[in-house]
Amino acid sequence: MKYTRSPGDPRNMTDSSLSSLGAKVVVASSGDENHPPENITDGTETFWMSTGMFPQEFIVRFAEATTMSAVTVDSYNVKHLRIEKTASQNASQFELVTEKEFGHTEGHLQSNVVSLNGSSATHLRFIITTGYDHFVSVHRVTVQN
């Protein structure tokens, strides 16, 4: 029996790493010199780790306005994530796109597809409002067009 995905399944979309889109992390609420925020965009085995306390956030700036159907967030210990967007060039006046509760995974990464409903943005703000521990990490964010 052959399995086919429905046309709207986000896994049918093209995944793009943030670095391939010319995106950069331009703001982060915390940083560790061994695990800096830019590790989120490099698409390798590196990661960004918070330094404790909540909320934690980071802002990704795209090289140009980008339309996204969804993002995949690979993380550890994230409990609740809020995603906001703006089309302004100066990262101001963000509006809520979505919020999602992540399930707790012990000993392995959380991988969550978060629908953005075809949002177009120059900046995305990811706000981790709570975690399952004092520290969280974000290993990769990819965009589905």
From TrEMBL:
GO biological process: intraciliary transport
Pfam families, alphabetized: F5_F8_type_C (PF00754)
Residues in F5/8 type C domain copies: 28-135
Signal peptide (UniProt feature, chain positions): none
SUPFAM superfamilies assigned: Galactose-binding domain-like (SSF49785)
Keyword terms: Cell projection, Cilium, Flagellum
Gene3D superfamilies to which the protein is assigned, alphabetical: Galactose-binding domain-like
GO CC terms: centrosome; cilium; intraciliary transport particle B
The protein's name: Putative intraflagellar transport protein 25-like
Naturally occurring in which organism (per UniProt): Scophthalmus maximus (Turbot)
